[in-house]
What does this fold into?
Amino acid sequence: MKKILVVCGIFICCAASFAMSLAGKSVVKTPVAATHKAPTSVTVTLTSNTGGNYRIIFNNSSYDHEFPMPNGSSQITVPAGTYTVAIVPATSGSNHNFSGVSCAVTYSASGTLAQFNNVNLTCGTASFSMN
It folds into this structure.
């Protein structure tokens, strides 16, 4: 029984000594990094000077929608995701230059239509144009 009391006494003294050594010292907590949440939708600027005869199509496994290419500039909103983006004539087409930018990646094509695969639309904004 004396051995148990001695061991307990030593433990209590060590614990008290440790607590006293921490007295007056602040505990520094490492800040947790802010988490970046990807946007749920992306604003896409469309620009064209072709008279509005073209359409732009955004397609992936959960979204398939087409918008008219403006005669000028307009903005649309699409759900964030990775898409196949096609710019096609509504009727017969002629040769044009097509371009796009999303998440610092540029896309370009020329001809009567354009298709860009694996376009990452998760950075908040993007743009597609033709002339």
Remarks:
- The chain has one helix and nine strands.
